[in-house]
Specification:
heterodimer; A: about 250 residues; alpha/beta; six-stranded mixed sheet; 8 helices; about 35% helix; B: two-stranded antiparallel ribbon; elongated; binds adenosine-5'-diphosphate; binds magnesium ion
Amino acid sequence: MNAVIETHQLHKHFGNIRAINGLDLQVGQGEIYGLLGPNGSGKTTLIRLITGLLHPTDGRIIVLGQPMPHKGVLAQIGYMTQASALYEDLTIRENVAFFAAMCGGVSRQRVNEVIALVDLTDRANSLVRTLSGGMKQRASLACALVHSPRLLLLDEPTVGVDPQLRATFWAYFRRLADEGTTLIISSHAMDEAERCDRLGFIRRGKLLAEGTAVSLRQQSNTPTIEAAFLHFATMEQTENPSQGEANA
Amino acid sequence: MNFQRIFALARRVIQQVLRDHRTIGLLIFVPMLLLTIGALLFRADPTTFPLGVVNEDEGMSIPLVGSLNIGERIVTALQDSAFFEIVPVTAVDTETKLRDGTVQGVLRLPPDFSAQFLENRQAVLDLRLEGSNPTHSQVIQARVMEAATKALAGLASSGFGLGAQSDTPAELPVSINASYLFAGEEFDTMDFIAPVYIALLAMFFVFLLTCVSFLRERSQGTMERLLATPTTRLEIILGYILGLGLFALVQVSIILFFTIWALKIHYLGSLGLLFLVVALLAFVGVSLGMLASAFARNEFQVVQFIPLLIIPQIFLSGTFWAVDDMPSMLQPLAYLMPLTYANWALRDIMLKGFGLVDIWPNLLALFLYGVATVSVGALTMSREVA
Ligand SMILES: Nc1ncnc2c1ncn2[C@@H]1O[C@H](COP(=O)(O)OP(=O)(O)O)[C@@H](O)[C@H]1O
Ligand SMILES: [Mg+2]
């Protein structure tokens, strides 16, 4: 496997909160890796560590062959933050063009193409301030995609997106993966898990289990991903009962 | 009207303010700070002015009475006056000493001064003033007048037969013939303050604008996004300086146009140089804004910078009180304020017509100030995202 992301014994502590607590992760090229875990489990922290926005307390991160943080690699990363981080007083097109320029610049045509992709062509000249939550989410995705990155980090991208558009999103994610883009998609909605190539259950800054949706269900002998998550969570809790308290 | 709701609202507001320790601190600390600065400034001991004297008076000998040198008497009176620090000057170096600030005025007493006085019963004092600070010019004239009058009054009582004066007590035997190196009589206090208005507006406009823009950049998450691109902190900072600095220049053009053509402010030096100073000041304003925004969690806390940072700076940067007039314990603070250097530079340009050779140290100070602030600002930028 050609690893796009590798972390080794990664730790990130905020005071006595161990947001990431000894995490080993390997993601290969063209994979859609689903990072599944409840609120506060460390998904956002892990993604920010991968971008180099946060520096690890301990351990190593290698992205596209470079140890992070590394500014050069960032041109090949697209990052969609959890809350749609956009300039409210600019239009959608201006936002997309701006972030494209920050990553080295793209053609006008590419900007329009990305806007069309998230189905916002008729609102391209509207100020972000006037958009609905779902539209902002789509515009935010467009900003992360515009420079055709090799690695896409999407932090809960489908929150507030209606089911129909969600399907469109996933079809597009799949197409990107087929073209060789690596995607990390975090979610706390377990029903989306089936669409990922591989899943990582994250809880209290640790990977509980990894594998395809099918294998995880089989291993835990449960009918749904949600049940599988609970199974692994209880198992870990009984193995390390003290851990949870130290983290709480 | 429901009092329960009103009380619940009041209670919530109180809880929020109490939780914001900085606001509490500000409510208590800032009024005391501002009052202290104000008291120190208003109660400052009157400044002594360095005054040059060229005394060439040869005196006059009056038969039966003795010799008389009125020039000397006036110099003695000036020396006795608490307002002046008398510096010996020659007729030749008058202009240089005025220009480099060694003296603020030069009183020239010609060889026939005493003779003229005895003939006309009237002393005309030839006073050359530096002129760029109209308040100083006025005070110096008044004090010189006072000292000379005293000297001449002493003359009358020592029996030099000048009794004729008492017939017309309303008419003073002293008048001043003032001339100015810079600016001049037609320059008033507004002319003195206009350059610093320009500086003040240019700087604090961009300061507040940057502060709020940066704050928004962080609160809406775009800063995080920006830092997750190859864009470096320095690039972000320079982009802001370029973008907001442009507004500062446009704003200053309008202010300049308005002050010069509408308010008829006098102005001597080069317009290009003036813009250079303002551009540097905008640079400092943007960098300070970025630095300050790291210490503000919301727009409300940005507003708090006005009493905390801006008003003291207006007091202490020589805007209304020239730095030399400030109490000596406050003067070191003036050197910490970027506005001080801009004020000096702008006044030199607008009131004295100075060029780059004269004002470059102030420009350098501004530039270094900006660079230092940007560097510290870049450090705080990494801290806030982590
Ligand atoms: N900047 C920070 N300072 C302190 N604690 C933080 C910070 N960022 C995250 N945390 C803590 O780290 C843990 C994981 O947070 P996060 O990664 O945001 O979780 P998730 O994205 O999975 O909901 C939480 O307990 C959170 O409170
Ligand atoms: Mg999160």
